[in-house]
Predict the structure.
Amino acid sequence: MDSLQLIQTFREVAQRGSFSDAGKAMGYSRANVSKYVAELERRFGVRLFHRSTRSVSLTDAGELLMERSEPLLDMIDATRNDLAQRAVQPSGRLRISAVASLANGPLMQALTGFAVRHPLVHLSCEFSNRRVDLVEEAVDLVLRVGRIADSELIVKRLTLVPFTVVASPAYWRMRGVPAHPDALAHHDALVYTQDNSARSGLGHWAFMADGKPISVHVHGRLDATSGDALADFAKSDLGVAYVPHRLVEDDIASGKLHPVLADFMPQDSWLYAAYRQRRHQSAALRALLEALGAAFES
């Protein structure tokens, strides 16, 4: 039996003044209650009760344990109640890591609505393209575009993320409009990098041709961890960007950027949410996953 249960048994005996009565209240035999108290005395190395055939009373050491254990057990009871509450009512802190390009649009609307509905939840949001270790960094949820290759994570598919290949009209006039993805190998690519390591201006862009996936090796002298930055480079006639369509749809509509190769773009790029465990999720995480699912289904 653990120390907490032993102390609880000790307190029951002290409050009732009887091993037998304590046993009845706790569902133990008198012999077991006596054994548990003896074990607690052995662990502390002191006698806790004066015993006679007719009465039980606390020793000086027992009085000290009775006094000191009360706030400890009160704290444990309060913690147990708080934890039970968090299992049913969204509360506490949630740490979220999302790619930088999601720092506006549907995700922010979902997070804002969630924060309004659940005022007891503290949201900590990081918008970054760096790789995150959920366990080491105590992150509750990551949001990434593209498959998450970690068999220990639970992955929830949220919404399709269409990509597009764009450059400025002036760039296409200078370098020619590609008719096939392979032609991009000879263009100035504006390359997305996931973090600050291995930033060489090299990349591989995914396409579909004749119903089969193909990968085109591209290179350029500009790379960035931000799709918005790549779009800005493209608007300055500096090269070709492969970015989520949402980031450049206004620039396409205004004529600042021109999309190409629409018939070759893959249609299986998704935004995923990933978290560590399916069992014993907090009510806050369950509520957030429901809010994200509702936001991206609409």
